[in-house]
Design a protein that fits this description.
Elements (H helix, E strand, L loop, with lengths): L2 H16 E6 L4 E8 L2 H15 L2 E6 L6 E6 L1 H4 L1
Antiparallel strand pairs: 1-2, 2-4, 3-4
Helix pairs in contact: 1-2
Length: 79
């Protein structure tokens, strides 16, 4: 299986397990978000998604929570 398909399928599994899909219709923003307590894990996933899928991915802290969020911005991948 090719690298981008493997990355896409892995991301789909993460979203189903611990993530969400968010669409902001007014601003036309489409986000795929994954939450996890292990920030290093999310940073590794973000790096792989950037390399394999050529998408904008960043890891950020969630205020007043003890977990981090990986946010990927891509309408193509969202759809």
């Amino acid at each position: 299986m090719c690298r981008w398909r493997t990355a896409r399928n892995y991301l789909a599994g993460l979203v189903v397990g611990d993530g969400s899909l968010t669409e902001y219709k007014k601003t036309y923003n489409y986000y795929i978000e994954v939450y996890d307590a292990d920030r290093e894990f999310l940073e590794k996933v973000a790096k792989e998604m950037k390399a394999s899928l050529k998408v904008n991915a960043k890891v950020m802290a969630v205020k007043n929570r003890n977990y981090a969020k990986l946010r990927i911005s891509s309408k193509w991948l969202f759809m």
